[in-house]
Design brief:
36% of the residues lie in helices and 16% in strands. It is α+β, with helices and mostly antiparallel strands. Helix 3 (83-101) runs parallel beside helix 4. The longest helix is centred in the middle third of the chain and has 25 residues, at 126-150. The relative contact order is 0.23.
């Protein structure tokens, strides 16, 4: 299975990442292996960098043209967008990844909410998405607690998500990562510290929050690396 991951990078603070000159695809591959995969990945996590999106609006292609999975097309999508809109769109896309990871999307309509009050995910502000995730976590953790305290068999009523021990473990891990991320700068509180691609959700700060320098005279030069990872 393949999934798109979003990695937040402070190009001024991250060792080996030049804020003035984007890396070549091979340089990024080496850098990504040294700063993420060798600690959090395994031999199954083969990957393809797709795109770097900078907070300035600049973009940089990482994927070869005519990629067999069409992963080079993400660059074309952002290239047609106004540079002033690209960074906000990248952050919105990251938040939407979270909503998907936490099973918040109505798959037929890609929306958040009940049947009578649906909100299309594309029309929701990031803060509302994160708030919906927080509410969802509280509700599902309560379900998990009930599951544990009543000692239900993991095979009883198997159609219920909470009756899978893997689903419970993943929910608990993802929830812990989300709560951890809320201690970061509010603008980037969807990005957790780097974790395994299997159990965490798909938005990680490659430096684990170290880019939060509140008294900085100059804002950090940030970028989001969009990477397709096999899990």
């Amino acid at each position: 299975m393949h999934a798109i991951y979003n990695f937040l990078i402070n190009t001024k603070e991250t060792h080996g990442f030049n804020p003035k000159e984007p890396p070549s695809p091979s340089e990024f591959e080496n850098w990504f292996h040294l700063h993420y995969l060798q600690y959090h990945g395994d031999e199954n996590n083969w990957y393809q960098g797709q795109l770097l999106i900078y907070s300035s609006g600049k973009i940089h292609q990482l994927c070869p043209e005519e990629d067999w999975r069409g992963r080079d097309q993400l660059y074309d999508f952002y290239e047609k967008m106004r540079p002033s809109h690209r960074w906000e769109h990248a952050l919105d896309s990251a938040a939407q990844c979270l909503a998907y990871d936490f099973n918040l999307l109505n798959y037929s309509g890609f929306s958040i909410g009940n049947e009578d009050n649906k909100n299309p995910i594309e029309e929701m502000h990031r803060a509302d998405i994160l708030s919906a995730i927080e509410d969802h976590i509280i509700s599902r953790l309560d379900d998990a607690k009930k599951w544990f305290t009543t000692k239900k068999s993991i095979y009883d009523k198997n159609t219920d998500l909470m009756n899978s021990d893997y689903a419970i473990r993943r929910l608990l891990v993802q929830s812990a990562h989300f709560i951890e991320a809320q201690s970061y700068d509010h603008r980037y509180s969807m990005f957790s510290s780097p974790h395994s691609a299997y159990d965490s959700y798909r938005c990680m700060d490659i430096e684990g929050g170290s880019f939060i320098l509140k008294d900085e005279k100059e804002p950090p030069v940030l970028c989001i690396a969009v990477v397709d990872i096999h899990t």
